[in-house]
């Protein structure tokens, strides 16, 4: 017997995360003044069938139940498998252990992000950071069945949360929590401790359902989001961006460029900028392994750090 639950976190959690983890920086999803945007529109568009891949990194699993290394490795490997099915994500895994939830001042259940991991993801040129949390098991012991055959049975609910952080804008693209409830075979004592030591067969079976469903959600979000990156070098009219052959970019790719808007200072004193108005468009001329050289189509004043978005 099993029961399925799904929880998709709403805007409240996104706003809460902004204030809690402001050391991640921040982003503005707006495009600035529409009139200014139109002024720098070249009128050219990209091929409709060209879909750029996204570079993503999976943070070390945050294990709030304490299941041990074998299950933690399996969860990460299974997540990578399901996320890689469609081939439009370039997936990396961060090795090592996740910080404790006490270090992160995190809730017992739900969305948890590691600011240090987000900073490393940005240094590595990632587009998105995926964080997975195994929540504590919920164990219920209750008398079940029809008299005179009523026995005490144990039901276990396992749940996992997954969140996707857009590294460029510093915003949460999604946060999803799903769970599976199942009954342990056989009967237990009335005063049975409310603790379940995972049985590999049962855990892997029901955790697979969760991870597969969550991968579908992540793939939908990543597919709908246009590729965004940054200008990493400027030399006269030669503009280098941090996307190349690895993401499927070819010569002739057109990008909108956005200036820096208002700034905000994080808790550690670092200054971050909201995305400003559109200041021009660029077109790629030469694609290297993980970067590309572009030239302006419209606009000027292109600078390192400005955001570029695939048009």
What's the shape? Answer: elongated
Strand content: 35-45%
Describe the largest sheet. Answer: 8 strands, mixed
Low-confidence stretches: 7-32
- Named CATH topology of the largest domain: Rossmann fold
Cα gyration radius (Å): 23 Å
* CATH architecture level-2 label of the largest domain: 3-Layer(aba) Sandwich
Rounded average pLDDT = 82
By CATH, the superfamily of the largest domain comes out as: ABC-type transport auxiliary lipoprotein component
Q: Roughly how many Å apart are the termini?
A: 49 Å
Overview of the structural elements:
The chain contains six helices and 14 strands. The chain folds into two domains: 198 residues, ABC-type transport auxiliary lipoprotein component (Rossmann fold, 3-Layer(aba) Sandwich), CATH 3.40.50; 83 residues, Thrombin, subunit H, CATH 2.40.10. It is α+β, with helices and mostly antiparallel strands.
């Amino acid at each position: 017997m099993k029961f399925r639950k799904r929880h998709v976190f709403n805007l409240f959690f996104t706003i809460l995360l902004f204030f809690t983890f402001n050391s991640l920086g921040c982003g503005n999803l707006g495009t600035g003044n529409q009139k200014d945007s139109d002024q720098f529109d070249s009128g050219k568009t990209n091929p409709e069938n060209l879909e750029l891949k996204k570079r993503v990194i999976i943070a070390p699993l945050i294990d709030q139940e304490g299941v041990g290394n074998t299950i933690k490795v399996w969860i990460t490997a299974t997540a990578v498998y399901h996320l890689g099915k469609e081939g439009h994500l370039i997936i990396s895994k961060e090795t090592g252990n996740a910080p404790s939830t006490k270090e992160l001042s995190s809730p017992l259940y739900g969305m948890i992000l590691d600011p240090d991991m987000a900073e490393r993801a940005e240094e590595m040129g990632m587009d998105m950071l995926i964080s997975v949390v195994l929540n504590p098991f919920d164990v219920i012991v209750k008398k079940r069945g029809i008299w005179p055959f009523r026995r005490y049975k144990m039901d276990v609910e396992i749940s996992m949360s997954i969140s996707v952080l857009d590294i460029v804008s510093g915003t949460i693209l999604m946060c999803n929590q799903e769970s599976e409830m199942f009954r342990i075979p056989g009967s237990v004592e009335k005063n049975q401790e409310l603790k379940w030591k995972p049985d590999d067969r049962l855990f892997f079976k029901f955790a697979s359902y969760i991870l597969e469903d969550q991968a579908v959600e992540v793939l939908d979000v990543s597919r709908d989001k246009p590729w965004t990156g940054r200008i990493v070098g400027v030399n006269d009219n030669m503009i280098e961006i941090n996307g190349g052959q690895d993401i499927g970019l070819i010569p002739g790719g057109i990008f909108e460029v956005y200036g820096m808007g208002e700034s905000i200072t994080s808790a550690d004193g670092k200054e971050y900028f909201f995305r400003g108005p559109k200041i021009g468009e660029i077109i790629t001329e030469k694609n290297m392994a993980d970067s590309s050289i572009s030239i302006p189509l419209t606009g000027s004043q292109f600078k390192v750090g400005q955001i570029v978005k695939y048009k």
